[in-house]
Amino acid sequence: MRIPLSWLREYAQVPAGARAEDVMADLVRVGLEEEGVHRPTDQLQGPIVVGQVLSMVPEPQSNGKTINWCQVRVIPEGAAQTLSGDGIDPSGVQGIVCGAHNFAVGDKVVVTLPGSVLPGDFRISPRKTYGHVSAGMVASVRELGIGEDHDGILVLSTLGLDPEPGSDAMELLGLYDQAAEINVTPDRSYCFSIRGVAREYAHATGTRFKDPADGVHVATAAGPGYPVRIEDAAPIYGKLGCDRFVARTVRGIDAGAPTPVWMSSRLRLAGMRSISLPVDISNYVMLELGEPLHCYDLDKLSGDIVVRRANPGETLKTLDAKVRTLDPEDLLITDSSGGIGIAGVMGGASTETSSRTVNILVEAARFDEISVARSRRRHKLPSEASKRFERGVDWQIADVAAQRAVDLLVSLAGGTADETGTDVGTAPEPVLIQLTDTYASGRIGIDFTDAEITTSLLDLGATVDKTASGNETTYTVTVPSWRTDLRIPDDLTEEIARLVGYDKIPATLPVAPPGRGLSRVQQQRRRLLQALADAGLTEVIAYPFVSKLSNDTFGTADAAVSAPAVKLANPISEEHSFLRTSILPGLIEIAKRNHSRGFRDLALYEAGLVFLPEEKMGTATVPPLGLRPPEEVLDALYDGLPEQPLHVAAVLTGKDSPLAAGHSARSWDWADALDIVRLMGDIVGVEVAVSQGSHQAFHPGRTARLALRTGELLGYAGELHPKLLTELNMPARSVALEVNADLLFEAAADVIVAKPISTFPIATQDVALVVPADVPADDVLAALREGAGELLEDVALFDVYSGAGIEEGKKSLAFGLRFRAADRTLTAEEASEARTAAVAVAAGRFGAVQR
User: Fold this and answer.
1) For residue 247, which of 365, 404, 126, 157 has the smallest C-alpha distance?
2) The total number of structural domains that make up the chain
3) How far apart are CA 208 and CA 197, in angstroms?
4) Which residue, 141, 144, 549, 577, is the most exposed by fewest CB within 10 angstroms?
């Protein structure tokens, strides 16, 4: 919202010398965000004066163009020239070459004299052109930066002006004014008006506010106005689409009359271009009071105006000349011919005002926020009106805004207003909020005084009734009609804190209640991700949108099974039209992008949700917006959501360390992926079972199946499939892993107890067992651990051999066993007995023979 300072000064006590920056600094104190400054003088500098054309001589040129050699008086006749400088004629008559032809001798125009600067750092100086020295320029609105029209020179009489030559044209056109631009948050809709911003400025500075609505006398003569009916009998979103419609009639206007400069300059500074007097008046009132208006050509209306929902298949040609197919949810303004406007969004072309309009019907209404917002989005029709309606408009201001527009049409367009008007609808019940002083103080952490609370609430425009009970005072607050955002005690508490001053809130950290903090799973997740980063991996975040092929490849181990996935209704592209069932596709895309930019040695990981739909998805119907659905409806919605476990995945490519003198970097391999998985298990205190696995995205012989000791699948790790790497243009022997972290956290103990460090020496024994080739080494290791008993501290596989000396179809597994007792030094016999017991279990379970 842009606020011209001259306009703001009419309703707020802004100091005469205040700049836009000063105004924004004050408004920031009451929670409004500053955006920028709009000051014409930053790009436009004088001397720029009014000139009168004394003569103009057409001179055809060899290039086919005809220029005018003009003599222009730039001082009052008989006066002395007070300006000096290169190109300034002491006589006060400037010779100027001009290529435009839309002016005549005697016209008053805007002259940019030598020494002036126009937008774009265009500096005016005497220059020789077309055989003359042109000392200045007769300017158009585009050259002055005050409009886009370039039909020719700005002739001041077309603006209804007849100033004296030599007058300051910048002052005449309002170019010394400036505007402060603020960002209005969605809950502060009343600040989309000078009225609302002036009120906030008064709050910020403690000065007086003059309500522009108080200066409008609303006609109260009895009698029927233009017939209007509201027929939104079946409300959508829990309320009517229109609860007030005011219509006023003005007859005999001159629609072609020029818009006064004071109005057009303010509209321009506010970011709106001048279109025609009736349209400019409606925009001016909207910016001033916050109530969007619409002007109909009365002679183009037929029959009663009816506010209703659109019929299926109904169409409407809007003001932008597009024919739009309407939705039954669209709220329409209609007459006997059909739709004449989408309520609160855009009017229809059939009743548009023009320069031939004589009689006007002014509409000021209040439409439902949700209805306007959905229609605006549905038809992609953003407008200044919809921006205000969908955030909430003051119900009480409609008749005032209509009267303000009528008054301006009468005074500026020469019209005559009908004595009677139309005002239909039902006022909403006022919002009552009960607030206690202890509640407000407890929420903010300040002991607000009764005076601070009462003054703040009254400054908002609320009415306040107080009731004292013991040490507590209860305030019953009637919310003002323009504050549609105030609904609960917390809203009022926030307003009190805002108006008393955010700087009064002490900078003290709250004390966390005992027994709270991060949950067990949150702590485990933090430790897990930090451990991966500490291990040298780099965390990345990929988009959760993938292709169907990626889901089918990575989302299921079996190539013959298609992975069920959630398809997006409005994907960003067909290649990313599904929610991911695996994190690896996104990680691989990031790795590919880094490879294309020369980064070859990568260790990337991501933790994120995957989406695993079950048989039931969604609900049969979607509950309406604007109302909280019942609990059973919410339960049904949650039941229809896909399962969303947290997965952790990693992709490793290239070398494990940079090349350096005296150091040979090692290529990442499948064993590194397993080490990362074991690290994850160690961090949360869960033992991960590793066995030979099979997955369509991984190498047939270098894939590990990861599981809990209960057998529940955790994920897969290993080398990616060579064919897949070729298709993806990824380096050969790239490795990856993906683990269901939620299962890890569920299996983890609430508390991880560290084992005490023994002071007794360790006894090491090695054993090599020959077993069938298809027996997993991890199963043999588990058997050894089980048989060795409580003296076994650790067992690890350190060699696998098959070949000469080993029977075909078998393999040799070499394990290192570490024995230690907690209370004594073990003897060699005790360690050997434990080893023998371990081998016996492996022999009985797998037929293992000691080598």
Assistant:
1) 365
2) 6
3) 13
4) 549
Residues 697 and 828 in one domain: no
DSSP tag of 88: -
d(CA 848, CA 722): 34
- Structural tokens at position 478: 């009637």
Task: With residue 308 as reference, give the H or E element that holds it.
Answer: strand 305-309
Same domain, 651 and 782: no
User: Omega into 47 within 30° of 0, i.e. cis?
Assistant: yes
The phi-psi region of residue 572 (left if phi > 0; otherwise alpha if psi is between -120 and 50; otherwise beta) is: alpha
**Which residue type, as a one-letter code, is found at position 229?**
R
pLDDT band with cut points at 50, 70 and 90 for residue 148? confident
Residues 281 and 320 in one domain: yes
Give tens-digit pLDDT for 342-366: 999 999 999 999 989 999 999 999 9
Q: Three-state SS across 106-135?
A: CCEEEEECCCCEECCCEECCCEEECCEEEC
pLDDT (average), residues 503-513: 79
How far, in Å, CA of 64 to CA of 66, rounded?
Answer: 7
| Whole-number Å distance between alpha carbons of 836 and 713 | 33
Beta bridge partners of 464: 477
- E strands, 151-292, where? 179-183, 228-230, 242-251
Residues 553 and 698 in one domain: yes
First to last CA, the chain: 86
Are residues 708 and 571 both part of a single domain? Answer: yes
pLDDT band at residue 396 using 50, 70 and 90 as cut-offs: very high
The rounded distance, in Å, linking the Cα atoms of 254 and 528 is 76
Contact between residue 420 and residue 221 where contact means Cβ atoms under 8 Å apart: yes
Of 378, 402, 425, which residue is a domain's last?
A: 425
Give domain status of residue 249, yes or no.
Answer: yes
CATH number of the domain to which 136 belongs: 2.40.50.140
Q: Say how far apart CA 295 and CA 286 lie, in whole Å.
A: 12
Question: What pLDDT does 234 receive?
Answer: 67
| DSSP collapsed to 3 states, 650-666 | EEEECECCCCECCECCC
313 and 302 co-located in one domain: yes
Distance between CA 714 and CA 695 in Å, rounded? Answer: 13
Higher-confidence residue of 5 and 239: namely 5
In this structure, the answer to whether residues 534 and 481 fall within a common structural domain is: no
The answer on 405 and 364 residing in a single domain is yes
Contact 297, 351 (CB under 8 A): yes
Bridge-partner residues for 153, per DSSP?
none
Domain of 845?
Answer: 763-850
- Tell me the pLDDT tens digit for each residue of 169-194: 999 999 999 999 999 888 889 999 99
Q: Are 114 and 85 in contact (CB under 8 A)?
A: yes
Q: What are the tens digits of pLDDT across the range 806-848?
A: 988 999 999 999 999 988 999 999 999 999 999 999 999 999 9
Q: What is the largest CA-CA distance in the chain?
A: 129
